[in-house]
């Protein structure tokens, strides 16, 4: 099944551009706080993209698993991801 992750893809592409910018800023010896702010903005975008991907997974794969009888496996996947998130 193809998932609709256009918003997450946009966020990831923007984050990629910000990483490239942070690399360039570092190479140029720019002010450390400016680089740190760029990195924090990138991390924020990555978190948003990850949340979008996980929401889509729950809305599609996990929901479908209840109809297919494979909900235990998908539920375990979500628990595993949440454990990583909460660390």
Note the topology:
Blueprint: H1 6-27, H2 32-68, H3 71-86
Distance between the termini: 31 Å
Strand content: under 5%
What CATH architecture would you give?
Up-down Bundle
Percent of residues in helical segments? over 70%
Total domain modules = 1
Overall radius of gyration: 17 Å
Global geometry = elongated
Summarize the structure.
This protein has 87 residues and is mostly helical. The chain contains three helices and no strands.
Keywords for this entry:
87 residues; mainly alpha; Methane Monooxygenase Hydroxylase, Chain G, domain 1; 3 helices; 0% strand; elongated
How would you characterize the overall build of this protein?
With 87 residues, the chain is an all-alpha fold. The chain has one domain (6-86): Up-down Bundle (Methane Monooxygenase Hydroxylase, Chain G, domain 1), CATH 1.20.58. It has helices at 6-27, 32-68, 71-86. α1 (6-27) runs antiparallel to α2 and α2 (32-68) runs antiparallel to α3 (71-86). The two termini are 31 Å apart. The mean pLDDT is 92.
